[in-house]
Amino acid sequence: MAKIDKRFQILLSEEEQILLKNEAKRRGVSQGELVRMALKNEIIQKSELLKRQAVVALSELLD
Questions:
Q1: By the 8 A CB rule, do 20 and 12 touch?
Q2: Do residues 33 and 24 touch, judged by C-beta distance below 8 A?
């Protein structure tokens, strides 16, 4: 696991705070860990989508 040494502060609505707290509890992780997981998943998904789109575009050029 990567060393956690940077602080980042965000503002959440009351509804978002409740959702975060409940989901973290359901998964058995801290709220901070859940936010880190969500961030990583979002970035990875976008990156993978862009890679797939590039492969499709390249394959269309080669056909």
A1: yes
A2: yes
First to last CA, the chain: 43
For the whole prediction, is pTM greater than 0.90? Answer: no
Rounded to the nearest angstrom, the gap between the alpha carbon of residue 15 and the centroid of all alpha carbons in its chain is 19
Residue 37 neighbours by CB under 8 Å, 6+ apart:
29
Neighbours of 43 (CB within 10 A): 10
Cα gap 51→39, rounded to integer Å: 18
User: What SS3 state is found at 3?
Assistant: coil
Structure confidence by residue, pLDDT tens digits, 1-54: 568 888 989 999 999 999 999 999 999 999 999 999 998 888 887 777 777 777
Of 56 and 2, the one with more pLDDT = 56
